[in-house]
Amino acid sequence: MDDQNKNLILATVLSFLVILVWFVFFPPEEPVVDPNAPAVSATETAQPTAPAPPAIAGANGEPTPPERPAADVPRIDIDTPALSGSISLQGGRIDRLALKRYRETLDPASPIVELLSPVGGDDAYYALFGWAPGAGLNYEDVPGANTPWTQTGGTSLSPGAPIMLEWTSPAGLTFERQISIDEDYLFTIDQSVTNTGSAAQRLAPYGTVARHGEPQDLSNFFILHEGVVRMSDGELQELDYDDLPDLDLVQREAARADVIDVAQDGWIGFTDKYWMTTLIPEAGTPFTSVAKYVDGADIYQTEARLPTLEVAPGETVQTRMQLFAGAKEWETIRAYEEDGIDGFIDSIDWGWFFFLTKPIFAVLHWLNALIGNMGWAIIGLTLLIKAVLFPLAYKSYVSMAKMKELQPEMEKLKEKAGDDRQKLQQGMMELYKKNKVNPASGCLPILLQIPIFFSLYKVIFVTLELRHAPWLGWIRDLSAPDPSSILNLFGLLPWGTPEVGSIFFIFSLGVLPILLGISMWLQQKLNPAPADPTQAMIFAWMPWVFMFMLGSFASGLVLYWIANNTITFTQQYLIMRSQGYKPDVFGNIRKSFARKTGDEKS
Questions:
Q1: Whole-prediction pTM value?
Q2: Which residue windows does the record flag with biased composition (Low complexity) (predicted)?
Q3: Residue 547 near residue 522, CB atoms below 8 Å
Q4: Please, are residues 312 and 199 in contact by the beta-carbon 8 Å criterion?
Q5: Distance CA 520, CA 502 (A)
């Protein structure tokens, strides 16, 4: 077995290992959570940092009065080009929100995606804003989860048409809240408090995003983060749902919590695969970032607590916080970052290879805007990647061509060396050095494809722009496997295809996986089969094993691999011919079939 074949087999084994690892799933444990957080007691001296807000589940763990039936709760409609929903006047909660631009499935009649939902139904998920009481104030003196707000301005919430809410507490504090929204997914919550009493009061504004239980549609895939995501003074942190039960117990919170004091810029919230709900204090404002749960309830919670404010008699103080609630569209999130939300583009899960995934997606997005089709953009991206790697590929294929020319001399060396392997190795190294041939050069381009392949897989898996993106014909969703199947002759037979994830789906090869196997097989035929029977068998099976392994991968990724193989075949063929070596593709195919026929006869 010569060194070149050893390196090729090594590269193949490494590629197999990487791809096999990607199939591994890590199901999360079922956590038990609760949102309880103690308030600052009436006798407590106000702290420089923000006190904990009134707990959603009630002060000091006491149960809250049940929420009024949904039909009895006054609501304010939300209507924008991107969102529809409503705000509950009970607590002023933003708790009904749907994404107009996105449907649950490819069926145009399927429901639009629902992001937020009110308490009382499945998967309650909402945003709440209020004030935490300082010394001298009680929970009844500040607005909380069940405060009955009065609408004083606006009819419905839409871009350029904010709404106004008002509530006066028993302590003589008048709270006002203005909620506005832009054309996309950014709410702005301006809160003010006026002290009409005779004594100064201290209190702290906060925002909360609460989620009752884990989402039912969790991907549970190890390369994707779903859960808490936050930025704290330039440092990104991600906490999975199953990480929260392992947090330390914080006495001041009376809960397991992760508390970070942010000095200047940051945000915190929950991220799903394609959607996100995030609290964003004003840039340059210090705040306390909290991710927590309390044992005994099944509610996850994130909080952004602003510093404690002192309101003198007759004085009015104001504060502002923003809420992103919507789709993780790359262009939209990047625009928000450019407008001052620090590091917001990192709310998209770029992964460990962010230095590759970010530029790969940026180029893919640009090509899609230029071409108008994400499938052709993937093929265009493949061309660009191959162009960047061409100098390396050129050296590799030139070296491979020279290796073919040296085959007769290598055979002579083997005859001379006999069983003396050390002498054979020394002779081969001298031969390589004399002819300026690097036997490992053919392996390097293959190895470089591994991180590129993984990065593109990550991009296709996590970015919203690939979701439900069509290419041509039967490929209507590049983020999903090829829906065609050889089991029903690609739609000619009157039965459906196995469901994704079933054991039969492995054998339900679509058109793209079959084309992938053929492209790999043809690429092999640029060179004669190895003389060693073991090597020959490995190389013969490799394309078809990959065909089955990648058959359940996203169509966009399989399309990339087919394009990559096709371009590689063309490059290698032309470069080897330019070096005087003419690959006999059809001759190698005939020999391959002849060898198999001969094996069967023997």
A1: 0.81
A2: 42-59
A3: no
A4: no
A5: 26
